[in-house]
Amino acid sequence: DVLKISKAICDAAGLKLPALTPRQYAVAEGYRxxxxxxxxxxxxxxDAVALIYPAGNGAEFVVVRDTQLLFSRTIPPAVLQSEQSxxxxxxxxxxxxxxxxxxxxxxxxxxxxxxxxxxxxxxLAAALSIPVRTFDPxxxxxxxxxxxxxxxxxx
Length: 155
Description:
Oligomer: single chain
Largest sheet: 5 strands, mixed
Order of helices and strands: HHEEEHEHEH
Shape: globular
Distance between the termini: 30 Å
Strand content: 15-25%
Number of strands: 5
């Protein structure tokens, strides 16, 4: 249980745990659910992939390998205000994590709806040397099944 482990770590260090934000785990689980539902092609379980989930107050940058969360960082809202800032931040994150993960990062998955011109994913694909794909974090979930077809992948 993540909460119990986090609390135990803080208690051992003499720290107070005021809150635990599980967004990075939700992003990783959304990716796993998309693969399990067959809506996304699976990468090799040995490959580490970066997941980016834009939200109203920034974005989450998460690196997973198979079922393990390897790295997580919140991207501040100001970074999403310009393409140059966003691409630069993603490149920095990939460089930091790529040096620590054996084999590096195999691909970047961006939680993005179908957008004309590719949206952020198209801009990242043009700037990065690794594959950039979109994924639907609600694919295969009860919440995703409740979304009317005309609004699917339009988050």
